[in-house]
Amino acid sequence: MSHSKNPDAVIPRSILVPFILVTSLFALWGFANDITNPMVAAFKNILLISNFESSLVQFAFYGGYCVMAIPAALFIQKFSYKKGLLMGLFLYALGCLLFIPSGWMMEFWAFLLSYFIMTCGLSFLETSANPYILALGPEGTATRRLNFAQAFNPLGSITGMFVASNLILANLNSATEAERIEIQKNTPDAFTAIQKADLGVIIGPYAILGLVVLVVFVIFALYKLPEGRNEEDHDIHVGRTLGRLFKNSRYIWGVVAQAFYVGVQIMVWTFIIQYAGNELGIDKATAQRYNIAAMTIFVSSRFICTYLLKYVSPGGLLGALAVGGFLLTLGAIFIHGMTGLYCMIGISACMSLMFPTIYGIALDGLGGDAKLGAAGLIFAIGGGCLMTPMQGAIMDLPAFELGGMVLSSTRASFFLPALCFVVIASYGIWVKGHKAIVKQ
Predict the structure, then answer these.
(1) Is residue 8 assigned to a domain?
(2) Cα separations (Å) of 151 from 116, 145, 295?
(3) Rg (Cα) of the chain, in Å, rounded?
(4) C-alpha to C-alpha distance for 187 and 195, rounded to whole angstroms
(5) 143-195 pLDDT, tens per residue?
(6) Residue 405 β-bridge partners
(7) With 77 labelled, which of 29, 40, 346, 418 sits at a CA distance of 20 to 30 A?
């Protein structure tokens, strides 16, 4: 298809409407991600489980991305980006609506299954939408176009955080974990009633979200999306494609960097509540407002960094921001009081550019291999499902002694995000040194 007479146009007028429609999905899955992060702390309190057990919410949530990424890519290759988007919206809505029977059952495993099905849908959406945005317009501005589309993802995230803070966390029973243990011991029926009411508070927003996603499904079913570059090839050549991808070091290390990026993002945004509560005694609803502040900074930084890509190489900017994220994480570990929390919030400014930039760099020049290549990058989102329980397990340990200094397990657990930034910085610096990456 003809995109524009101007090869430098980021969003040619001919693709404006489909671009807007698909970009709206970035906000939609951002909402799902960030209404879910605070639920780790919520389920821990409601069900009286450990940090490790409650972090299984993230294991189930991001596990769906892992399991479904490759099948989603094969589905899209066989059919089309549009059918991939429709399948994603269907599974997304189904997972949300399954929260209703999960609440009736009052079983943690049922909620985990609902999260898993929901994110199987998100895996379809991300495996479809990200490469479709790259393929929808001129190839020369693909990375900038994806960064612009991804800039709307945090808008959905902020909305999800706001709903989590004001419609869920603020409306849960105010009894502390210690008080709940006492109620469970002395009056089990009263404890069950509190649990049932709290789970009902969680169910409502997810059920409404499921209905909203069904409406979006109908809109996409009725609208005729244009084909992207290389979409006309529906033959599946998995072996040959994987062979080419595994020989592409920029792509392979991009998948590794993406796994560590998603891991650090989910760890920082999930456990900022525990950091604020355990280190500063801040209640969950108030702590979630600091998470909203972090996301607001993330949004602002995303737009700024997208603009800077006109003048700075993607690898160079990625490396610099990763170094900044590493230093701020060390600040959150070693600096006590509100300054440490402010360092935690500041990490979001450094993370803002990372996902779409790693994505764009890794897929640059892959042509028709980008569909299966995109699946590898979505598969890498599984970094969040593995690293978050690891950090939760560290938090469950006693305090650590480090060179005569005593570090709480909460602070010590953030060495794991710091390590992630080292990997990301290494990839950005390595990419910058390779002439194959053209400044977008």
Answers:
(1) no
(2) 25, 10, 11
(3) 21
(4) 13
(5) 677 777 877 777 888 888 888 888 888 888 888 788 888 898 889 899 899 98
(6) 402
(7) 29
* 3 belongs to a structural domain: no
CATH number at residue 241: 1.20.1250.20
By C-alpha distance, which of 58, 47, 198, 40 is closest to 116? 58
Question: Per mean pLDDT, which range of 190-204, 317-331, 377-391 is the poorest?
Answer: 377-391
177: which residues sit within 8 A by CB, 6+ positions away? 44, 45, 48
Q: What's the rounded Cα separation, in Å, for the pair 369 and 367? A: 5
- Containing domain of residue 65, as a range? 13-432
For residue 47, give Cα distances in angstroms to 50, 107, 284, 434. 9, 9, 16, 51
Tokens of 261: 């990026």
Contacts of 59 (CB under 8 A, 6+ apart): 112, 385, 386, 388, 389
Structure tokens at 36: 């879910």
Report the domain count for the chain: 1
Angle at CA of residue 362, ends 357 and 365, nearest 5°: 110
Q: What is the largest CA-CA distance in the chain?
A: 75
Residue type at 246? F
Residue 328's SS3 state is helix
| Joined tokens for residue 394 | 């560290």
Residue 299: how many CA atoms within 13 Å on its side-chain side? 17
State how far the Cα of 386 lies from the Cα of 107, in Å rounded to an integer. Answer: 22
What's the pLDDT tens digit per position in 395-415? 888 888 877 788 899 999 999
Residue with tokens 């602002």: 300
Question: Is 63 a domain residue?
Answer: yes
Q: Tokens 């891991």 sit at which residue? A: 263
Distance separating alpha carbons of residues 403 and 414, to the nearest angstrom? 17
User: Tokens for 8?
Assistant: 């430098």
Answer yes or no: is 53 within a domain: yes
Amino acid identity of 242?
L
407: β partners: 400
Note the pTM of the prediction, 2 decimals.
Answer: 0.73
Give every CB contact of residue 101 below 8 A, 6+ residues apart in sequence.
Answer: 110
